[in-house]
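Q: Convert this sequence to C-alpha cells.
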Amino acid sequence: MVKGLIHSVESMGLVDGPGIRTVFFLQGCALRCRYCHNPDTWEPDSPKAAWYTPEEVLHRLERFRPYYGSTGGATFSGGEPLLQPDFLAETLELCQQAGIHTCLDTAGVGLGHYEAILAHTDLVLLDVKHYTPTGYRQVTGRSMEAFDRFLTAAQAMGKPLWIRHVAVPGLTDGEAHLAGLEGYLNTLRHVKRVELLPYHTLGVHKYAALGIPYPLEGVAPLEAKTLEDWNQRLNQTCCDKE
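A:
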C-alpha cells in the first residue's frame, strides 16, 4: 500500500491556488533555498510528520468539500511534493475522480514520473527560483537541469501555470532582474498568472530551533507595495501565451 509522509495540513487555505483549499505540505525537499521559511520540511523523514494513504487524504478532503464552492479544492505543497511521486500521482487521481480540483505547488525538482502526476493535476503553481543557471544555483545550491525537466513536461502537456517568484533584496529584485524575469516568462506557454512574492523573515526562528545558520541574516523584509507595478506589468505581458 502506497503512503505519503505529510508534514502538516492547512484545512482552509486562501493563498495556495484559487478559492478555499485544503493544503497538504509533504515532507522532504532537495533544494536549500537561501530564503526558505520551512527548513523543517527539508529532511525526507521527520518524527513530527504523519503517514497518509491516498484514501485517507481523500477522506479528509471530503470533510471540507462544502467550503470549496466552484473554485476551491486540494493543493499539494511542501517541502517538495514531487519527491513522493507514487503517492502524489495516486492521490491526485483519486481527487479528480471525486470531482475535487487539484493544484500542485512545486519548485519542479522531483524524482520523475511527471506525466503520471500531471495527468491528474488541474493547475501548477510553479516556483521559479531564478531564470538563469548561475542565479538558480546561487539561490538553491542546485543545478537548474532538474527544474527544466519538469517544466518541459508541464509545457508539453499544456498545464496551466501560476508563476511564483520571491523577490529578495540584493538577490532577486531590482529593475534589471525583474526585466530579465519578464523576458524568461515570455518564452513560456500556458501562463495564467504571475505572483511576485516579497521576501519575509517569518521563518527565521525555525533555523534557530534547528541549529541551522540563517543564510540571509540581516536582510530586511521587502514591502509588498514595492512590487505592485511589476506584478501588474508581468500579469499584463506574460500571461495567456498559448
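The chain has a mean pLDDT of 96.
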